[in-house]
Amino acid sequence: MSDDTLTRYRQSIDNIDAALVFLLAERFKVTQAVGRYKAESGLPPADPGREDRQIARLRELAKTADLDPEFSEKFLRFIIDEVIRHHEQLRDEK
Length: 94
What we know:
CATH topology: Chorismate Mutase Domain, subunit A
Distance between the termini: 60 Å
Radius of gyration: 17 Å
CATH class: Mainly Alpha
Number of domains: 1
CATH superfamily: Chorismate mutase
Largest sheet: none
């Protein structure tokens, strides 16, 4: 016996997951370009001030969206750390 309601919820979740993957891919394409620019320009891979501002901004957005700000910060921190790792690799390749 199937549960049509559960199936519809899961289809929506699958669609959202797909959108998240594509959005992350686009974000990382842009941050890779930023990393190349920083490496070519001799700029540091990390920008702690920008990171702090982004985290504060995302925490506020999370509150507005009724999403746990702690979760949103952890999620963004994970992304930022990965971006910095990529930027360091690009810097080291130069």
